[in-house]
Amino acid sequence: MILLMVLCMSHIGIGQEKYAVIIAKTQVQSNNHSQAWIETFLKWEELQSKGYAPQNIYVFFDNGYDYQSPSLAHRYKPNVGIVLTYDAATLDNINKVFNEFKEGSQSVNKLSKFDSLFVWTYEKFSDHKTNIQLYEGQLSKEDLSHLIQPLNANIILDINIKDQ
To answer: Phi and psi at residue 158, in whole multiples of 5°?
Structure first.
């Protein structure tokens, strides 16, 4: 009993941080741009309702800019300073943030074994490929595995590859 109390007390003050990476790519001229943004926005909102801090949610969307969706105008108001998109959905940008999770940087904390990382993708395919098509390049399941494997955190994957 005393040992259990000591173990519990030793973890007091060690906070678990929740981090998330959302990868969503779509072409601006695509008919699916609005739907991809709505799905991305709803996932971002859902993660916050589950305790993820907005600054710990890294959204890689299309060319790096939030999409202005008329159907979300009542919920998403950029004039109040809310920006969802962290950067463009490119392989270089995604590699960079995962490396920062591994090593730490001024802008991204190094993940610890007490932290959790949720990774969610949204992509529409017509050719049944298993790669995530990015704004520039593509991310294979193997690439994603290599990015996640060295991280010292609890990883949750939610990979959504959908046919049109």
So the answer is: -140, 90
Q: Which residues contact 92 (CB under 8 A, 6 or more apart)?
A: 136
Q: Are 159 and 121 in contact (CB under 8 A)?
A: yes
Chain-centroid distance of CA 12 in Å reads 28
Q: Find the Cα–Cα–Cα–Cα dihedral 9, 149, 36, 46, rounded to 10°.
A: -10
Q: What is the pTM of this model?
A: 0.80
CA distance 153 to 17: 10
Dist CA 15 CA 27 (whole Å): 39
Contacts of 132 (CB under 8 A, 6+ apart): 23, 25, 121, 123, 138, 139, 140, 144, 159, 161
Please list, in sequence order, all residues whose beta carbon lies within 8 angstroms of the beta carbon of residue 63, skipping any fewer than 6 positions away. 28, 88, 89, 135
Q: 61 — phi, psi (to 5°)? A: -125, 125
Tell which residue, 109, 119, 118, 153, has the closest CA to residue 139.
119
pLDDT in tens, 56-77: 999 999 888 887 767 666 666 5
